[in-house]
Design goal:
This protein is an alpha/beta fold and 477 residues long. It folds into 2 domains: 116 residues, Urease, subunit C, domain 1 (Roll); 309 residues, Metal-dependent hydrolases (TIM Barrel). 40% of the residues lie in helices and 19% in strands. It contains 19 helices and 17 strands. The strands form 3 sheets. Strands 1, 2, 3, 4, 5, 14, 15, 16 and 17 form a 9-stranded mixed sheet that branches. It has a 4-stranded parallel sheet with strand order 6-7-8-9. It has a 4-stranded parallel sheet with strand order 10-11-12-13. Helix 2 packs across helix 19, helix 3 runs parallel beside helix 4 and helix 6 runs parallel beside helix 8. The N and C termini lie far apart (53 Å). Bound molecules: zinc ion. Pfam families: Amidohydro_1 (PF01979). One of its GO terms (molecular function) is hydrolase activity, acting on carbon-nitrogen (but not peptide) bonds. Keywords: Hydrolase. This is Amidohydrolase.
Length: 477
């Protein structure tokens, strides 16, 4: 970390509480913190350029907070395009994703993490919430730390094995992922949080994450929230991720999954529910009451036919004051680590589905992709907006690109016109990690080469390439 001046920036989207847009400003970064934001001329007078270790020119640039991805699977990244695209959520998870994850060994996982983070940085993401490692939390933590990225990861655990183990679920995966009891799982989660939280000067955090839904007992859902609270971290898991899961819950327990979480006291402000696409009005009230966060993954609802446009109640959640953030999810679930796509989608999906132009404006889509994500990650005291005292996590769009030429309202242009490949520079924790689209912390060509090698090896090993895998499932019915 060094002192950095970003001078003569045309436009800054601060994403402060008033969505203030600044023009012709300079930003002084000392260490990893924003020390001053002021008019370009005043900063030029007060701070000689020679005082800085690095100066970045902000002419023809729009600077905004880095994007925060609040639901991701780093370990899934080498599976791009491997699964068919006619799978609903449950067969996707049980027949394809589990066998795939079974085959991700430590080496493949390291290259998967590098490849995913490379894509994130190149498309404007500066912070992620990852579901957790398939092998060893240490691998994810240390690999992510080396890239200069900010993020939260975890151990990932479950405790309810299906009655019969389906084909291609390897013994190693079952042993690593499924604990005999909730207490055993919680012990492993506690150990990983204690060991890895606040790593790399607190750039990498570790949470008590579980898989959620059918593979986790009520005790584990509640226990993860309690453990997270006790350790001062969060927990995240998948829930109400499809109408089939919800119908199964209704049939077995006489209530929907979020009603059930409420009943067992598992909801709380340190819980991020991924998807929550099939949800009742009464459940929205429960989430609001407990300040529980929701990570909406537009790309996944598109590919896995979850029905967000049809049955999703994200606008109602926002009206109820719930923090709804955005996530890219895993590469086989959605196909992309590009948060700009999620931001663009959420700004149009509900306008169209409800035939109501007042649904989720561009300004709110930007908040969902930045400050609301930071809030979900319990990190909004330090990131998510461009304000003095916060960590310096920015991206800078090149407004000389064709997508920006000409443009009027910068908030609209950022959401509806910009392309994530217009992100020219990225700064994370005060360090320039991408300059002129060159990621300085990573060897892009080597990562792509190794990712291809390990993607092929893992796919072969998984049995998914030529296997006759069913596209329906009755597991956990
Ligand atoms: Zn997921």
């Amino acid at each position: 970390m060094s002192d950095l001046l970003i001078k003569d920036i045309d436009t800054v989207l601060t994403v402060d509480p008033d969505d203030t847009v600044l023009e012709d400003v300079s930003i002084v970064v000392q260490g990893n913190e924003i020390a001053e934001i002021g008019s370009a001329s005043e900063i030029a007078e007060d701070y000689p350029e020679t005082d800085f270790d690095e100066v970045v020119d902000g002419n023809d640039m729009l600077l905004m907070p880095g994007l925060v991805d609040s639901h991701f699977h780093l370990s899934e990244h080498l599976s791009r395009g491997l699964f068919p695209d006619n799978l609903a959520t449950r067969p996707w998870v049980f027949n394809w994703a589990k066998p795939y994850y079974s085959s991700v060994d430590e080496e493949a996982e390291v290259w998967s993490v590098r490849m995913a983070i490379l894509e994130m940085i190149k498309t404007g993401t500066t912070c992620f919430l990852d579901m957790g490692s398939q092998n060893n939390t240490e691998l994810i933590v240390e690999t992510a730390a080396e890239t200069g990225m900010r993020g939260v990861t975890g151990r990932h655990a479950a405790d309810v094995k299906p009655d019969t183990i389906p084909p291609y679920w390897s013994e190693e995966m079952v042993d690593h992922h499924f604990f005999d009891t909730a207490d055993d799982a919680l012990e492993a989660l506690e150990e990983s949080v204690e060991k890895w939280n606040n790593y790399a000067d607190d750039r990498i955090r570790c949470w008590a994450n579980i898989e959620g839904k059918e593979p986790c007992s009520p005790e584990l859902h509640r226990g993860a929230s309690e453990l997270a609270e006790e350790l001062g971290v969060g927990t995240t898991y998948h829930v109400s991720s499809s109408i089939e899961e919800v119908e199964g819950s209704e049939e077995k327990y006489g209530m929907w999954p979020i009603e059930r979480l409420n009943e067992i006291d598992a909801l709380g402000p340190n819980v991020v529910l991924a998807h929550a696409v099939a949800i009742k009005d009464r459940e929205i009230e429960m989430l609001a009451e407990h300040d529980t966060k929701v990570a909406f993954c537009p790309g996944t609802t598109f590919k896995l036919a979850k029905g967000a446009a049809n049955i999703g109640k994200y606008p109602e959640m926002l009206d109820a004051g719930i923090t709804v953030s955005l996530g890219c999810d895993g590469n086989s679930a959605a196909g992309s680590a590009d948060m700009h796509k999620q931001m663009w989608t959420v700004a149009g999906l509900f306008k169209d589905a409800r035939m109501d132009p007042d649904m989720i404006p561009a300004s709110k889509a930007i908040r969902m992709a930045t400050i609301d994500g930071a809030e979900a990650l319990l990190w909004d005291d330090e990131i998510g907006s461009v304000e003095v005292g916060k960590r310096a996590d920015f991206i800078m769009f090149d407004t000389n690109e064709i997508e920006w030429t000409p443009h009027h309202r910068p908030i609209q242009t950022t959401v509806y016109s910009a392309n994530s490949h217009n992100v020219k520079h990225s700064i994370i924790d005060g360090d320039v990690v991408m300059k002129d689209r060159d990621v300085l912390t990573m060897d892009e060509e080597e990562i792509k080469e190794q990712a291809r090698i390990h993607a092929e090896r893992t796919a072969e090993k998984s049995g998914l390439v030529d296997g006759a895998i069913p596209t329906t499932t009755t597991l956990y019915d």
